[in-house]
Amino acid sequence: MKYNRIIQLFETSNRTKAKKFMPFLVAGDPNIEQFKKLCLAIEPYADILEIGIPFSDPIADGPTIQAANTRAFKTGINTAVALNAIKKIREKTEKPIVVLTYYNIIIQGEDTIEESLDKTIKKLKESGVDGIVIGDLPIEEAGPTLKACEKHDLCLIFLIAPSTTEERLQKILKVARGFIYLISVMGVTGARTSTSQITIDTMHRISKLTNNVIPILVGFGISKPDHVIEITQAGANGVIIGSAIVNIVERNLHDFEKMEQDMVSFVSGIKDALQ
User: Fold this and answer.
1) Which residues, in sequence order, are bridge partners of residue 218?
2) Strands, DSSP E only, in 19-148?
3) Which residues are catalytic?
4) Alpha-carbon torsion (111, 115, 119, 125), positive or negative
5) Distance of CA 149 to CAs 100, 117, 166, 209, Å?
6) Is 242 exposed, middle or buried (0-12, 13-18, 19+ CB in 10 A)?
7) Which of 65, 210, 223, 265 has the fewest Cβ atoms nearer than 10 Å?
8) What percent of the chain shows pLDDT beyond 90?
9) Are 207 and 214 spatial neighbours (Cβ–Cβ below 8 Å)?
């Protein structure tokens, strides 16, 4: 029997009232053991955990997450090590886990693309992953990946931006499962000081088209409880925060205890804003 924790999460809660929080950390940052401890420290405040598998050329990521990737690489991270860490985290939680990666990561090896995708998606599922965001995979080229995800009951999470046309959005909505990842601003990831009007306008436009058929989580640039309140009041079903969390790692590289305390304080404040 197929079972996906993301689908279960939204099926068993009233998504018009229960707003979700998906914090993001980079696997192996600042090192693999501390990464696992941080994931478990913030788990009580997360509805979904998002974990980035480091990639050498993360085109959608800003300098904060690029620096986290570099730190992780220096500690010996690779896909196998990352998946083993996720497996250990899965042993301690039943919260959904989403992986953020790039297409080259999931088609490594000498197999055909279809064979490689099947093997990688199967490994993700066996590691306890429920969904995958592929930062450089457009809907027009997603057919083989969708097929592998359907076979292994993984949600392929699509990115939608303010520039996404209605035609393209309709293509995505026909095949999307789990939730839509709405990029709130143009450009790469990174904490911003304010919520732009384009974020609110895009939220209104997208929510009308989705007609509450699939939840919308908003990410990129969210860094304060005020942002969370504004975005959810505009109709979002939840928020995704990465750079503001990864910044806490960078600020406290030589004091893990403070890093953990500051991170728990931050994510608990975000969770409170969603209530």
Assistant:
1) 182, 239
2) 20-26, 49-52, 97-101, 131-134
3) 50, 61
4) positive
5) 14, 9, 25, 24
6) buried
7) 265
8) 65
9) no
Contact 221/185 with Cβ under 8 angstroms? yes
Side chain identity, residue 105: I
Token pair for 230? 């504004």
Amino acid in position 166: E
Dihedrals φ, ψ of 240, to 5°?
Answer: -120, 125
Rg for the chain (alpha carbons), in Å? 17
- What the chain holds in terms of domains, given with CATH numbers, is 25-274 (3.20.20.70)
Given CA atoms 90, 96, 97, 103 in this order, what sign does their dihedral have? positive
Strands 131-134 and 97-101: parallel
Exposure of 74 in the CB half-sphere (CA atoms within 13 A): 9
Tell me the pLDDT tens digit for each residue of 22-66.
Answer: 999 999 999 999 999 999 999 999 999 999 999 876 565 678 888
The DSSP code sequence of 172-220 is: HHHH--S-EEEE-SSSS----SS--HHHHHHHHHHHHHHTTSS-EEEES
Query: What does DSSP assign to residue 54?
Result: P
Q: Side chain identity at 147, as an amino acid letter?
A: K
Q: Specify the pLDDT at position 233.
A: 86
Q: DSSP of 141-161, one letter per residue?
A: G-HHHHHHHHHTT-EEEPEE-
Sole residue written with tokens 């076979």: 151
Predicted confidence (pLDDT) per residue in 137-185, tens digit: 999 999 999 999 999 999 999 999 888 888 998 899 999 999 999 987 6
Taking only the tens place, the pLDDT of each residue in 182-206 is: 987 644 444 444 456 777 777 778 7
